[in-house]
Amino acid sequence: QQQVKQSPQSLIVQKGGISIINCAYENTAFDYFPWYQQFPGKGPALLIAIRPDVSEKKEGRFTISFNKSAKQFSLHIMDSQPGDSATYFCAARNDGGGADGLTFGKGTHLIIQP
Amino acid sequence: DTGVSQDPRHKITKRGQNVTFRCDPISEHNRLYWYRQTLGQGPEFLTYFQNEAQLEKSRLLSDRFSAERPKGSFSTLEIQRTEQGDSAMYLCASSKSREQYFGPGTRLTVT
Q1: Which residue in the set B40, B91, B98 is minimally distant from A43, CB to CB?
Q2: How far apart are CA B37 and CA B11, in angstroms?
Q3: CA atoms within 13 A of residue A28's CA, in its CB half-sphere
Q4: CB–CB of B45 and A102 under 8 A?
Q5: pLDDT by residue (tens digit) across B10-69?
Q6: Is B42 within 8 Å of A106 when comparing Cβ atoms?
Q7: Is B60 on the interface with A (CB under 8 A)?
Q8: A9, A31, A75, B98: which sits with the fewest CB atoms below 10 Å from its CB?
Q9: Measured between CA atoms, how close is B105 to chain A, in angstroms?
């Protein structure tokens, strides 16, 4: 059972455009939702994270939107740049339940065309 | 560099051999995690330490896998009698609160 579903699998965006990646979760006990960026041959790097008590969080060009009732959250990358080309993973965790491992989506391969 | 480090970065081994990987967490991070990532997939949680105590193990962690974190500092992950299905990137992460920071990973190839 895939607990975090991520879409699209791949995405091509023109330079300067907005990249949008979506995730949906099933486990209502999840209460911490980070996004990671991964370049080939590297480990995932934490980008931004949100908890369900807010509906939106913005850090620079990256914004997370969160819809608790729909059990969905998304990453928006504004003014997308070629250097943003990477694989992005959403993740979720039950922050207070003692189950400390993150559950990841399958990833979105993002290409920003110059 | 004060990030999470892993050694070796690449390991090629023959089926049936034992391998051991090392992870050095960020200084003062009391939590340490191991994940496995196969091509085209997201990382999958394997196990978690708080200080030297192993508090959680995924069902993915078969009897051939063992992890240790002596003295609550670095950690080792050992795979005994490797199988071709063990070929993957093994990632280590550390944290002192909810944010987990990953190392560069060890890529294992079993031939």
Answers
A1: B91
A2: 15
A3: 3
A4: yes
A5: 999 999 999 999 999 999 899 999 999 999 899 999 999 999 999 988 888 889 999 999
A6: yes
A7: no
A8: A9
A9: 6
